[in-house]
Every structure is written in structure tokens, then in C-alpha cells.
Amino acid sequence: MKKTIIRQSSLMLALSSAVLSAQVQASGFALIENGASGQGNAYAGAAAYAEDASTVWFNPAGMMKLEIKQIVVAGHFISPKSSFTNGNSVDAGGRPLTGPDDDGGVDAFVANFYWVTDLRNDMKFGLGVNSPFGLKTLYDDTWKGRYHAVESDLKTININPSIAYQVNEKFSLGGGINLLLADVTYTSAVDFGALCYAFSTPSSCTASGNLPQQNDGFADLTADNFSDLSWGINLGLMYDITPATRVGVAWRSETKIKVKGDAKFKVPASASFAPSTGRSIDTGIRAEVTLPQSFSVSLAHEVAKWQWLADITWAGWSSFQELRIKYDNPNQPDSVTTHNWNDALRYSVGADYTLNDAWTLRGGLAYDETPIPDAEHRTPRIPGNSRTWLSLGATYNINPAFIVDFGYSHLFVDDTPINNTLESTTCCLPATLNGTYQASVDIFSAGLRWNY
Predict the structure, then answer these.
(1) Is the dihedral of CA 87, 89, 93, 98 positive or negative?
(2) What's the rounded Cα separation, in Å, for the pair 71 and 62?
(3) What pTM does this model have?
């Protein structure tokens, strides 16, 4: 039972995220969907782009490129497909896992808000509100991987006040503080039939109706960091190499999240042996995880009606090596789940074409590396893999005060093997989920800019 809770908690507390499918993230469970204009060119050159107030997030130094005060609101509709095909999934006794294959992808919506205003001629203030990390998966509670995961509903809200300063006509600096709120709901089935074998004889378990995969219970975990707000910083610079070419550099610090919450268990009546051991009892939980730092270098170059964009972003996912779960229940000892994630890179190129005074057209390509090292460390809560973005978009100037942006991306996700075994010191719980995910994602974005 102990490790079932560990496996649930590990991603619940680590992801603390916006409502999205696991296949949507730019890397790991980070979200790049933080502006509608950038969606159309796959967020290429985002740290040098400074097209609108969303630069508060991508590079606060870019606020100095905005000649007017501006408010931006944007929304993103995400439609993922992430179907699992079984290979050789078995319980700890080598018996095939019962239940259907399933698709954990769930349609979701994410919103962003940005505001930039003048403080003085050489200084601007900006405010961003968005969701920088995210996950949403939901499986049938009888599917083959039910002991690994059923529901993962993980949200964050990031509040990012920022300042930008114009050093000279070519060079600007910016920085901000990030205040992060996290809220989580996390569930999975518990194989009390198999757990019985750890505390009693097979004949006694059979007599009481506790057979592997035939007497499931449920674990429901919720947690948040509302009593211990997480924070970090971000810095950026922008330099005009020529009037037509500029480079942007942006860095975000690691952010440590400390969450507290509750673990609640639904235990079948015939599995009363579990609470009698001091386990499977409702209790408080605590954990912490360090979300990764990131570093971006972007280039923007204008030629006639074209603006060419490029970007490389590094994400320090090697900070996510393990997660230690602490339980208020003294009979349930601290546990560690090993992840061993790697740092990852994102590469993107794109272009804007000014069709006329009203319309700008966009396009872009990107490639995201996955930080997940292998099939053994991949879980159905984050069945992610490396992916390729194909993006299209447009901007329409209604009038000088109002501008609308549209963007669409299709993500081609590499076929994703999984061979994950629940880590448990209890003999009869380490079920292995083995198979392949086939996934793709469609993202539709729209935004409104208000110049005032």
C-alpha cells in the first residue's frame, strides 16, 4: 500500500500544474502556451520577439519595445489524443493486468493575462498571470494501468510582476518576481487483493475474497501550497545588433514547491486487514519538489515584409531526480520515488509576413526533447515523449486600439514506450504497465490586444 501512495504523490506534488494533457507540455510538464501571437510561429524567437505584452513572460526586457500601454488576454483550447496499447502488463505475481486499454487525454482550456504600462520614459512595469506548468489525464477506473494512475488534475497560477529599463537606444534589461500557487487532485486504484498476500496466507486471502485484481480500493489525494507560497525570479536582456536584427536572452530560476494535503482511502470491507496494520488510513501528506530553471536565446531579423525568428531553450529538468513523501501517519514511513529526468532542449524557427496594414501571417516549426530518460521511468500520468510542432497563425488589426491574434499548432508525438513498475517494498504491489502510447495534440489559440 505504501508505494501505491508514493507513486500517486510523486507526480501529484511535483506537477502542481495547469489543466492540460501530459502530451501538451513544451518539456516535461512545463507549458509554453503563454501567449496567442506566439502560437502561430511555434513560439520561435520568443525572447527577442516582443510583439505584445506577453513579453512579460518570455522576456521582460522586451517591454521597452512596446510604444504604448497594452493589455492582452489569450485563451488556448487543447485537444489531445493519447491512446495506450497493451504489451505485456502484469501484476507482481506475473498475471496479466485485467481491464481495457484507454486514452487518458482530456480536452482543456488555459488562459493568460498581461498588462504593460509606463513608469517613465526609460522604464516600464508589467504584470503577467498564467499557468507555467500543467497536467491533466483521466483514465477509466478499471483500465489496465489503474494501479499506476486514474486521475491527475494538477493546476498552477503564476503571478509575475516585472520591471524593464532602457539602458540605451540598443540595450534594455528586465526582471520580475514569480509567485506560484499550486492545487492538486490525484487518484488511483489500490489492489487490496494482492496486498492481502503480504500480510496473510494465500488460503486465508482466498477465503476472505481478497484475490489479486479482484478486490480493488481507491486512493484520493489532494494537496496545495496555499499556506507556503512558492516564488522565483526571472531576468532578461534585449540587444539591437542592427536596426533590423535583435537578440534576446531570458532566464527563469528554479522554484521550490512545498505542498500539504490529505490522503483518503476507500478500503473494501473484506480488506480490513490493511487498516489494522496502521496503513491505508486517512492521513496528511507533505512533500516538496524543485521545478526547473530555464534559459532561452532568441533571434529576430526583419527583411522587407518578413520577420525571421529562431530560438533555443534549455530546461534544467535534472532537478527532478526523486521525490520524498512524508506522511503524518507514523506507521507509513517516508518513501522515495526515483525519476532521473534529464535536462532538455527546445529548438524552434518561424516567420511572420506582413500581408497588408490589417493582416500579418505566421508560421513555425519546433522540436521538443523529452526529459524522461527511458520507458522504465515513464508513467501514465506523464506519458510524454519528444514531439514536433507545426504551427500557423495570423494577426488582424481591427483598429489602432484593438488587435486580435489567432494560432493553431499540431504536435506530432513520437511513439511512446512505457515499461513502468510500481516501486514498492511490499511484495505483492509492484505491477508493471508495459505497452505503447500513440499521441498527438491540436492546440487552438486566440487573443485580444487592447492598446490604450
Answers:
(1) negative
(2) 15
(3) 0.89
